[in-house]
Amino acid sequence: MKRLLAITAAAGLALLTACTAGTEVSPTKIEASPTSHDPVTIEFWHGFSADNELKAFADTLAGFKQKYPWITVNATKAIQDDQILQAVRGGNPPDVALSFTTDSVAQFCKANIFQDLNPYLAASKIQADTLFPKVIAEYTQYQGKRCVMPMLADTYGLYYNKKLMKGNQPPKTLTELAELTKKLTVKDAQGNIKVAGFVPTSQMYENAPLHTGVMVGAKWTNPDGTSAVGSDPQWKKLMTWQKELTDALGYDKLEKFRKSFGDEWSADNPFNKGKVAMAIDGEWRNAMLAADAPEVDYGTAPMPVADDQPERYGAGFIAGTVIGIPRGAKHAEAAWELVKYLTTDTDALVTLSNAIRNVPSTLPALQSPKLKKDPNFQTFLDIFANPNSTTLPAHINSVFNQQTLSEAQIKWEAGRAPDLNALLAEVDKTINEKLKLTAGG
Description:
Layout: H1 7-20, E1 40-45, H2 51-67, E2 71-76, H3 81-89, E3 96-99, H4 105-110, H5 118-123, H6 128-131, H7 134-137, E4 149-161, H8 162-165, H9 174-184, E5 186-187, E6 193-195, H10 209-212, H11 233-249, H12 251-258, E7 278-282, H13 285-292, E8 298-301, E9 318-324, H14 332-344, H15 346-356, H16 363-366, H17 375-385, H18 398-414, H19 420-440
Parallel strand pairs: 1-2, 1-3
Antiparallel strand pairs: 3-9, 4-7, 4-8, 4-9, 5-6
Helix pairs in contact: 1-3, 2-15, 18-19
């Protein structure tokens, strides 16, 4: 599953919020199952595009067809959030839509982009609070409205190349990671990096602060929704550590090395090619390595943690794919049957998990004996179950908040913002001003 920051989606959501804020859709009476078995074709949009993902989806939809033979699913692949948003805005949405962007859930719910699923859950007698792990519940609802359901989860950990590790064990603390990075980094006669022990900069693929903040237990927001970035000392701790390691390796050298990489989602990923010894990545990399680089002998481990927080080792960041019924769907009851099947049917979730190596999102699926639990995948199941693992609860300005901190961190790493305290204070100010505008609008 490919987790991308949907900046274009944020722009579309902002526009739709202005058009639909305060417009509530009155739910009609929802039946637990369609009252008619007349043949119906529903449109299903999703973002999957890799061959193994598409095959897994085809197999899963075949199982749905066996259970609901009167419902035909017309699936469209490689759909992005902005396409869903434009379709809703234009009054011609699909019946079911899947999004990789949990960051947008608050906007999806607030602007009624997706319908409130609570009436459907009640009619189907599904207890979401006991079916899904608590951490998942935090990113699939906003202010009591559950407008999307979770369909598989993403968990982040550390991948390491056993050959490049040269017998060293994966680091458990940030100090160990820094020392090992320096030890394993190989440079040529001109000082250019040929192999990196680890690339510490935030622009390195999955190193965004959203994912690395869990290594120090950093907070994004205060209880009132305002920014906690500047007041939480953990962000300063993390960014100071990253800057010191970046400076030790050379920012310009790291950037030259990073810009030589292939596409993150292709066979040219530098971990596949043996160019980095350790990398932060999601559980899906297991399936990609099996498909694109089966010769790589690798292991997985939790991300290292701050030296003064050893009890938090084993935790990681958790997010996931979400799915729902867009406002204006033409066949809502049949659409709900597909949403329910893909998000609550244990065999369907296990089939998808085994094929694309995402973490199942229901407790029964996690406990299924059919779930493949090889050691490298088990790492992510353990991270998912760790009580210190965190997610980013739905926030109306989630994407904006992340973008603001990311831009600040790039300035800091590059040496363009020498005063970290002032930089983080400016992040707070920018985020809080945006929050006031959003609340006022």
